[in-house]
Design brief:
Elements lengths: L4 H4 L10 E3 L6 H10 L6 E5 L8 E6 L5 E6 L5 E5 L14 E3 L2 E3 L6 E3 L4 E3 L3 H5 L12 E7 L3 E5 L7 H5 L14 E11 L3 H9 L8 H8 L9 E3 L5 E7 L22 E7 L3 E6 L2 E11 L2 E11 L4 H14 L7 H16 L7 E3 L12 H14 L13
Antiparallel strand pairs: 1-19, 2-11, 3-4, 3-6, 4-5, 5-10, 7-8, 8-9, 10-11, 12-18, 13-14, 14-15, 15-16, 16-17, 17-18
Length: 399
């Protein structure tokens, strides 16, 4: 039976927890509210410790809540983060994405700052300010920073929210034993996708989309243990997926990976999604780390990192790079398909005149691998933080 436009706008016959209003992905006011209430009050990964190997190294980072930050390793070895702004006139302080500098010099008026954020010089300061203002009054604005969970550098622009450990809780308990050796980034890639950030996290949060991946169907879905994996929700919107053995030898021309990961079974695979947009993905010999940076309701910057062990031999590192690139590199078997999928969803939702106003998260399979419990858990946390129900965000009813 055909369905007309009016029928497509009818609310699904599911509980409100099992679908969301598609305007969550397109409304500019909701997006700005998300930046404040979600991204502005949670811990975000800015980079990895190995990207700042030496004192005075720095990286710039666009925070999902909007501000630009600079992450610095001090002369004492400590990693700190600051707003990338000179306190004099609000000028951008560091323009290069990465580098090394014993001092940061504002190009506007030549004010200087050291690697710990202290002002070390104001040009003609005595002449202009006499004793009313000096270098001790002009330090950079510091941002809370912690290094942990595999050596990642986490930042939080809210001074009053709980510590990183309270945010993560036990959500990384399956993968944490495999993060104890020092890691090193060997692959870094940025992709801007014309989609809403939640759609990328949705794709990472459910494996029903494995029907899209021929490689995953052959090496995973058709192998024993695939449907035995269970989702486990954790507080604060996080979720993990149990391990299974990926059978790379079942792919035409494929072979088992020659290098494994400490403590992980051969071909093992673990995945953890952290609210609001971080994914740890450990697959056989490589960790992939995804972070989302929303640019607008309809555009998302995704940062991908591939990591191996810092103590790798040249041979082992080459194997990890090959394993990573064969699946997740720009020309790999999986990543481009995921990007195409979320790009397609984003396009449809920006022009919903011919489509439904609802996205279903209604699959229930006992928390199995194709259950959409991970997405329902995510939007329950979204509703709690936003004070809006994801199924009826304009109803004025708080969750």
């Amino acid at each position: 039976m055909s369905r007309n436009g009016r029928q497509w706008q009818e609310q699904p016959r599911f509980p409100g927890t099992h679908f969301v209003d598609t305007r969550l992905y397109t409304d500019a006011d909701i997006f700005r509210e998300e930046q404040v209430k979600i991204f502005g009050k949670t811990w975000i990964i800015a980079c990895h410790d190995s990207e700042l190997p030496n004192p005075y190294d720095y990286r710039t980072f666009r925070h999902p809540a909007g501000p630009d930050l600079v992450v610095l390793r001090g002369d004492d070895g400590q990693v700190r983060s600051f707003y990338n702004i000179c306190p004099h006139r609000g000028n951008v302080l560091v323009h290069d994405p990465s580098g090394s500098a014993q001092k940061l010099l504002c190009i506007f008026h030549g004010w200087a700052f050291d690697c710990r954020g202290s002002c070390t010089g104001i040009t003609r300061g005595k002449e202009g300010y006499q004793d009313r203002f000096g270098a001790s009054d002009a330090s950079l604005r510091e941002v809370r920073t912690e290094v942990g969970y595999g050596g990642f550098v986490w930042v939080n622009i809210d001074d009053d929210v709980p510590l990183l450990r309270a945010h993560v809780g036990d959500a990384l308990e399956l993968i944490e034993p495999h993060l104890r050796e020092p890691l090193e980034v060997f692959h870094f890639q940025k992709v801007i996708v014309n989609t809403n950030f939640k759609l990328w996290h949705d794709t990472n949060s459910e494996f029903y989309h494995d029907y899209m991946h021929y490689f995953n169907r052959v090496t995973g879905m058709l192998q024993p243990g695939y449907f035995d994996r269970k989702y486990r929700p954790y507080p604060n919107g996080h979720v993990s997926v149990g391990s299974m053995q990926v059978r790379y030898d079942k792919y035409e021309g494929g072979e088992e990976r020659r290098v494994g990961w400490p403590g992980l079974e051969p071909g093992g695979w673990l995945l953890i999604d952290l609210f609001p947009g971080v994914t740890y993905n450990l697959r056989t010999s490589v960790i992939r780390l995804d972070t989302v940076i929303p640019l607008s309701p309809n555009q998302t910057l995704i940062e991908f990192r591939g990591l191996g062990l810092k103590g790798d031999t040249a041979e082992h590192r080459a194997c990890r790079v090959r394993d990573h690139n064969s699946i997740w590199g720009p020309f790999g078997r999986n990543l481009h398909e995921d990007l195409l999928a979320v790009r397609g969803q984003g396009s449809a939702m920006r022009d919903s005149s011919g489509g439904s106003r609802w996205v279903l998260h209604g699959r229930e399979e006992g928390h199995g691998i194709h259950d959409e419990v991970g997405m329902r858990h995510y939007y329950a946390e979204w509703s709690r933080r936003m004070g809006r129900l994801s199924s009826s965000p304009y109803a004025g009813t708080k969750p």
